[in-house]
């Protein structure tokens, strides 16, 4: 079984979207809670994953 590469080694999708203002604020809050001045990649990915879990699946 191969291990997944760490997030910073994964290529960025070409059709990526920017974070919304609300997502940026939540990422900043996560960084502040962890004692960092600015959010990093892990904070951003956690906010995106959180939103994915909240959203109901699309109907086909």
Description:
It contains 2 helices and no strands. With 60 residues, it is an all-alpha fold. It has one domain. The radius of gyration is 14 Å and the shape is globular. The model has no long low-confidence stretch (mean pLDDT 87).
How do you describe this structure in short?
This protein is mainly alpha-helical and 60 residues long. The chain has 2 helices and no strands.
Notable traits:
single chain; 60 residues; mainly alpha; 45% helix
Order of helices and strands: HH
Q: How many structurally independent domains?
A: 1
Low-confidence stretches: none
Largest sheet: none
Could you estimate the helical fraction of the residues in percent? Answer: 40-55%
Shape: globular
How many whole angstroms does the radius of gyration measure? Answer: 14 Å
The count of helical stretches stands at 2
Strand residues, percent: under 5%
Instruction: Write down the overall mean pLDDT.
Output: 87
- Computed structural class: mainly alpha
Our measurement of the CA-to-CA distance between the termini, rounded to an integer number of angstroms, reads 33 Å
Number of separate strands: 0
């Amino acid at each position: 079984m191969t291990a997944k590469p760490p997030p910073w080694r994964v290529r960025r999708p070409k059709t990526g979207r920017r974070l919304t203002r609300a997502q940026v604020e939540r990422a900043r809050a996560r960084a502040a809670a962890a004692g960092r001045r600015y959010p990093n990649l892990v904070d951003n990915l956690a906010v995106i994953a959180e939103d994915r879990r909240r959203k109901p699946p699309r109907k086909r």
